[in-house]
């Protein structure tokens, strides 16, 4: 009998980099985060074990989106934030957690909550292809 391959929806910096190095690539955690933002409809970048990252993820899941989650260790946090700021100028004062929708910086938990309350979040998720309905 064959076993199903388990693909995690939450990636940690250490596990992702270790896996990619085994595959012959040598990216840094910041490059992994940058690639996730470019390739995924919704990405939550946050500290490992952070309750605010968990709330952002659960809010998005409650709306029907399945966000990719990149968990950053404290030792990699400055590097990842610097890389994301370099790519997205509007993320100048960003602190973790940071949410990207459709490859664009949306903001932190406060911005997501405000967008959800005002009704702006669902159309953004639809436009990014994160929601089918």
TrEMBL record:
Compartments it resides in: Cytoplasm
Domain of life per record: Eukaryota
PROSITE patterns: GLUTAREDOXIN_2
Domain Glutaredoxin span(s) in chain numbering: 42-104
Main location as per UniProt: cytoplasm
The species this protein was found in: Salvia divinorum (Maria pastora)
Protein name (database record): Glutaredoxin-C9
Protein family (similarity comment): Belongs to the glutaredoxin family. CC-type subfamily.
Keywords, ordered alphabetically: Cytoplasm, Redox-active center
